[in-house]
Design brief:
mainly alpha, globular
Length: 150
């Protein structure tokens, strides 16, 4: 076997291995971390609201619109499922049962909505629904242009 043929076989082996490992790492972004109700509540308690921008009229309008979409009588079945999980108060229950938390609070529409106001995104939405909900991947670029660390 010539050196050229040997090198081609080695390269093809690495390419094949790369394709195999890429295919086998099918990550489900809707269940990054299974978070229990107890973990979720403890996490939310660690994020006290303390910024003047949260008193602005614009922030309050965003907050009201967010609650109208996710917690009103017209909210989706997924949102209602999350509310039922919270109301039952079982500390060991998973908040994303049947992907309901994701479908209610982390879906594309809600994330786009939250990403249009920096104060709302950084100080309310990202901590309460992305970080504490186990979907922190969406709290950072490329999913947002905001830096939640400052």
């Amino acid at each position: 076997m010539s050196l050229k043929t040997f090198l081609v076989l080695i390269v093809l082996t690495f390419v094949g291995a790369g394709v195999y490992f890429t295919q086998s790492q099918n990550i489900d972004l809707t269940n990054l971390v299974p978070v229990t109700l107890k973990q979720y509540e403890q996490c939310i308690a660690s994020y006290p609201p303390a910024h003047s921008c949260m008193q602005s009229k614009e922030f309050q309008e965003y907050l009201q619109a967010f609650f109208e979409i996710t917690m009103s009588g017209r909210s989706s079945d997924d949102c209602n499922q999350v509310i039922r999980i919270i109301n039952k108060g079982n500390p060991d229950a998973y908040i994303n049962e049947n992907n309901s938390f994701y479908n209610c609070y982390v879906n594309d529409y809600i994330r786009k909505f939250a990403n249009t106001n920096e104060c709302f995104f950084k100080l309310f939405y990202a901590p309460n629904y992305l970080i504490c909900g186990g979907f922190d991947i969406y709290a950072y670029p490329p999913y947002t242009s905001f830096n939640i660390n400052n």
